[in-house]
Batch of 4 targets.
Target 1
Amino acid sequence: MSQVNIFWFRRDLRFIDNTALSYALKENSPVLPIFIFDREILDKLEDKSDARVEFIQRTILQMNEKLQAKGSGIKTFYGQPEEVFKTLTSTHKIDAVFTNRDYEPYATSRDRAVEEYLKENGIGFYTFKDHVIYEKEEIVSGSGTFYKVFTPYSRAWKAKYTEHPPHIHGDSLTNDNWFKVEKLDVHSLKSMGFESSPIQIPEKELDTDLVKKYTEKRNFPSLNATSRLGIHLRFGTISIRQLAKEAARLNSTFLNELIWRDFYAMILANNPQIVDNAFKAQYDQIPWRKDEEGFKLWCEGKTGYPIVDAGMRQLNNTGFMHNRVRMIVASFLTKHLLIDWRWGEAYFAKKLLDFDLASNNGGWQWAAGTGTDAQPYFRVFNPESQTEKFDKDLKYIKKWVPEFGTKDYPEPIVEHKFARLRAIDTYKTALGK
């Protein structure tokens, strides 16, 4: 059997500045890269034309072609990770497995199980930081605890970043320590029960002019003024370290968005219970309305609130929603309709190309007032004033809600003033204020 080191690709689908991969290639044994189409994740997806699955499959295909030029390739599997490693240990003499860390609860339990199995078989399991700039316990307060509020966290983050910018690794394709294999075929979508999606994936190139103007333009949903790089950060087709370096040079507001990403990843890593529970435990007392009809209208973009409906239709059609509008639609669901933030979070998880558990959870709990944000529970976005501020000419609304202003457009499903007071009273009573 061949002596190899395994590199396990996950949320790091690139050769440039890939931390664990660069370390694996420095070892003596040649590196066999693998990718597992994980059935624990894929079998739960209802939409079999999920654009994210197609994006991953296509990316692996392109990477495999690049490795074939070096006489190597990516070995793909469709199954459960533990079973995959049992197969690999029966076909290869493995020195060690290298991979980059993932902080989601499923990922951490999966990695523990794989590590245990490998250790029983005398195989090393080495993990590295790659998905974030600073992870779980790298940015702590003066008392040594993790930050629960973003502003002091961001100050500490920037101070650390200025003093010690993270190291950026080179292009692993320049290394020749790859395990030589015959041509390896990547699993097709069809073989896994999936099919192609009509949804387009945004380009991964950073538009530097856009980033320079980001501060002034980012809040206006009718403009093409945000980077749309979320899916590339989610699956690691671009490096967060390279992006942060550019952001630090070009625009502090854009850099701040990347710091939010680190912040929410850190919050989830330290508090895995927030997947199912409010970050502020007392907020689990809120008696959410089980309004399935209201939720359906929200999902379909038929609430009678044009900015909300435009956002939901943009999401349903493109897998993307402008960030300002994400806040508006999330506030509307949790405050106007008093529907549990977990319902909205789960819907976003199904639809968003850039779905990331930590950021999605953080954003929804922020909107619901149940999360880390210091703002009191009585913040309720007014869709009309938000429209006046950020879509005054109704360009965004008219693009996604063409029947707005005609008899075909529905009346609001709830009156704003009534809904706002109901939300505040409900929260106040539940929290014993």
Target 2
Amino acid sequence: MLIEVEVVYAAVDRQLLLSVSVPTGTTVRAALLASGIGLAFPELDLAECPVGIFGKALNDSDSRPVQPGDRIEIYRPLLADPKEVRRLRAAKAAEAKARNQ
């Protein structure tokens, strides 16, 4: 029996959403490889890239089976640590406030 899942990836300059039919019991990683998204983004290492389902990162994509309607998302590495960015922004705002008083 086949089930439908979606595979999505957003590069800096473009994004792609693919629907793929896979047999029941297919793992997340196998569905990702079967989608053919690697042809559109050859720079991706599909065997190792971080993935998630509906915004929740998976640690076990090689063993977790997909469910009908799953949206498999391929994640890019962060360019900056969000906590560090917030800390710098807060420090800059505090400095500006101190100068204005």
Target 3
Amino acid sequence: MVIAGPTAVGKTATAIEAANYFNTVILSADSRQCYKELNIGVARPSAQELKAAPHYFIASHSVHDTMNAALYETYALGLLRQLFVQHPVIVAVGGTGLYLKALLEGMDPIPPIPETIRQTIVAAYNTKGIDWLKAELEKKDPLFFAKGEMQNPQRMMRALEIMEGTGQSILEYQKKNKKARFFDALCIGLELPRAVLYERINERVLAMMNEGLEKEAKSLLPLRTVNALQTVGYQELFQYFDGMLTQTAAVALIQQNTRHYAKRQLTWFKKQQDLYWLNAARPQIVPLILSAIKEKEKN
């Protein structure tokens, strides 16, 4: 069972509810919550939530480890082969669409890219900004420029890295036929009215600041050039530490960029077929999931 949707929609609570109902475990498909150095800024499940249901791919890797969709596919499939021995149902949850796509459909293997290419791109981005990144992709990878996530610096840098390292667009590695899987998947999409979702995002960012996001970001300053830190919630505070933004402006920018990210997530998931969309505000969502299971079985 897959539970997908934008940030702040309530995926973690729904996944725990489903995992408890089916007496099973949760596999995360979040590209940032896997890093043990990142906590508040990636909305990692709380200690209480982690106790409520066993979680995998949470704080399982270091920011110094290489992680991408293709590596996640290998990691997740190996883990699922072990977990399905004990559990007939596994709950996979996350908002990283490409990771879920890799899990369900597979990715073509991408040749290893020299780390120096990644380091050069990240350093240039940190100096020249997203406009430079857009210009580089328009010139070197027009396919990604036209169809890729052109407001997501992490995805954009990965695309440029692949193009410079292999001579092919990253999108070429995502176009092949779906791979056979040893499991069936029911895919649930969670959504809320846009105004409600955006308000939840704004409130979550304020809560993160109250929980100590600024202190966490400051402790990560020495790692600011690593791939995992090229993301919303940290980059804005790094600009604040550099004197480029006030604290108030940095918080507002985190809220704005998170709303934009949620919009991109929704755009991605709405393009996917076979998602059963449910209202995340419903007080009891498991009965709706059971109805979706019955509908899938009919088809």
Target 4
Amino acid sequence: MVSGSIVALVTPMDAHGEVDYVSLEKLVEFHIQSGTDAIVAVGTTGESSTVTVDEHIKVVLKTLEFANGRIPVIAGTGANATHEAITFSKMFAGSGVAACLSVTPYYNKPTQEGLFQHYKAIAEATDLPQILYNVPGRTAVDIQPETVARLAEFDNIIGLKDATADVSRVAIHRELCGDDFLLFSGDDLTGLDFVLAGGHGVISVTNNVAAAQMAKMIKLARAGDAEQAHAINETLIPLHRHLFDEANPIPVKWAVREMGLIADGHLRLPLTELSEHLRPDVREALRVAGAV
């Protein structure tokens, strides 16, 4: 199953706000050539909250087409309505996606039992592997390790993306869920420490612009070479920080365009382009990382 350095891929859009599939193909090639281990299509960084249902499905399918079996593709399928998350998962049945990434229901703030029942319903409605996604900073709900452990008993709930930045949870989840349950960091700033603590990889925003560097770092970390991995991470820390100077994916989409990987950095409202006074910091972070 998927592990290592995984990109939370941006969804490129042209100046008119339409999805730019030419640039999407270019991004997929960039990651294959850079050694990225897998792609998450239409997650939070891929603007899942502003694309239409038809666009959501098409971007995932086009990403699969462009990847052509050379790199696993994980589909973002999360929603705050359980029936909607089930519908998205069913739509990708037989498509070739490696797994679905399903964020905890946002805004409606379910209880731990509500979270369990939400994911249980999804798991029972599809055979596709499911990766839970915990990001309390965006959703206002935190799925607790004990709830994750209950869900890990379902055969097709295979892992967790944890964006809490609480590295201590790696050991807790390993103890409760077993070594085969996949653990991915969703926080770039603590991602290396997460992997060194026993995590299986990262699902990364920084990976959009420093793909080769992230791939090498995570490979070193998983091999136990903490010293060299930390040396690479030191060059990436400015990116880890400045790519979140405004809400993701505002800075990273600007950075991907700055690198020439996409033709335009358009975002859909309510997201707006990166504030001008923040651009020098992001540009310098790209330089320090060796991305430009």
